[in-house]
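Bug #77: duplicate submission created two jobs. Keeping one. Sequence:
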Amino acid sequence: MNWDAIGAIGQMLGSVAVLVTLGYLAMQTRVAHTVASDTNRQQRAQGAREMLLTLATDEDLRNLWDKTVDDETAHAAAAIAARLGVTKDEAHRLSWACQYWCWLHWGQWGSMTTDDDIAELQHLIQTFYSTPPMSVFWALSPYVRMLDRPFVEFVNAALARASTPEATR
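Kept job's structure:
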């Protein structure tokens, strides 16, 4: 037996084992980063939804907020109220509730992993966002700009597909 040859084979096997281990660790690091990013995104969405729900239900806080909004936001609230046939306060409450749904769907959109997930969210958006009050909020509210541009584009594309004759068949 040639001990040098056996030693060389052992070194090669050890090197392969190190490479496999490094590849596995790199893959685990990537997965851990994805999970951490997803958790962070979900926490941001949850925080936004909690505040929006508070604004929708706490009249004193909502009135205080409404006193401090800029002209564009006030004009949008008046336009939403007129379009929906509700008072300005009711329009604001609806606006906060609609934002709640947007942040819920933003969190889902950012976490989607399968084609089925995407199709499910597109269907939900096509049906839910194409009817009032969501459709009015989506069209008129300046708060839509707070959402990520790729998410807004995703919603707009889903709504555009819903309005085509082929989508209604």
